[in-house]
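Chain X:
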Amino acid sequence: MEIIFMGTGTSQGVPMIAHHSEGLDLDNPKNWRGRTSIHVVMDGLHIQVDAGQEFRLQCLHNKIEWIDLVLLTHGHADHILGMDDLRRFCDLRDGQALPVYSTPEGLQRVRSIYPYAIRERPEFRGYPAFHLTEMPALLDLPQGTIHSTLLPHGRVDTLGLVFTERSSGKKVAYFTDCKQVTSTARELARGADVVILDALRPEEHPTHMNIAEATATALLLDAPASWFVHMTSHVDHEREQAHLPPTIRFAWDGLRLKV
């Protein structure tokens, strides 16, 4: 299995517009973060998880040239406002609609923003088309399984996702945009080779885990490797990394993991 971190930043991106805060080393490319999303390749199946505002550029930078299905963790702007650029992948699929899975809230946001794309084939070549389905608790595919569970994220719930590749048995848990990882999610992630967690900033936040909460969760899950995503401009990569345990690291845009 391969995990490509297409973006690792929060909703405003990093650095944000009119950035004036001190302590963020902008000479370090790891401190330039697009909106958080990952691309998972599982036994040759290409799964896109979320598509934020930089999605087209992220695809170009990471050489993403095929997508089989799309998973949306939730309907917030920084996770779905790049979906129009999925039109190119519909062209590459000879006009077949892309399967899109999400929560009821996420699917309703897609319907309201992209009404022209809710169809089995694009209206015209070059347009997107999405086939929307509520994400089941278990998506069983020839290439492996994807378990899902709901995680608390303020006024909405986010999909927590656990990928298990059939050929290798490798397991990756992906828990972004959440205030806590529930007992159900922890059970699904048991034995994961890699855990990816929301870790917004050093200070507390009402709808996201901060770095201390994410670190405690990572230690509880006890995976061989844990990676943090969705960081704000308050997180300088090298400065904050120095305070983390050795099995926990901040991810960065363009990081590729072979699991």
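Chain Y:
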Amino acid sequence: MPEESGMTTDMYPNYATYLMTCNDDPRVRKALVSRIAERFRAALAGRLSQSQLIGVDYANTYGPVFGRQLNCASHDYCDANLVFWPAMAEAMSERTDGNGGHHPLHEPGHDLLDIIVSQENELGRVGAEIWNEAWAAAALNGFSSLWSVKEGVPAESTFKVLAEVSMTLPPHVAPDDPRYPGLPMITDAEDEIRAAAQVFLDHATPLSVADALEAATIVHQFADQDDADGIIGYFASYDPAPQRPLPRP
């Protein structure tokens, strides 16, 4: 029986039963992986800024090209495991009455997260597989609003310039780390450019395909000309004018 059939929703007595059902039923597994990924993306977006999320997406996308990407770059910005597990538990809770109840592979009082991390039995191994599949699905979809419109930006080099300017670099990452390239120009205005890019992200998020394409193209042109002032001015143009009080009659 599909996990969702018309108006009927399958329920499970506990997390362990749910996970083991995923091991036997690909339809249930696919639905759970999708919900975990969705909730993880939302949770990480609530934890990190847009420019940090762009950094995660950039490294996840181009890191393998540079030969340096081993894990999801979200770990560079926070303890992402502590963000992921509540998202996974929330997704499982939607089809259970909670994580209580007896299961042969999950004895009462034994923490399910520990079982999954240690993969000490079949339940742990299945849980780890679901964990990894959901995380990979979330990373593939991207975490930032900018990355979500990437497919609408036809020029890869143009898009990369906008992402490089707009991302926040993790504080502990070495300046020569190829996963996080610097600005695509030689300039002394890096701080000003990034501050202006933050204005752009604050006022243009979530980005439409049209906004992303326009911004990427314009920033790319200014970068080719080493025109830092042009980039700053363009980004700053998104800052709405301060509200002025209406004249009194």
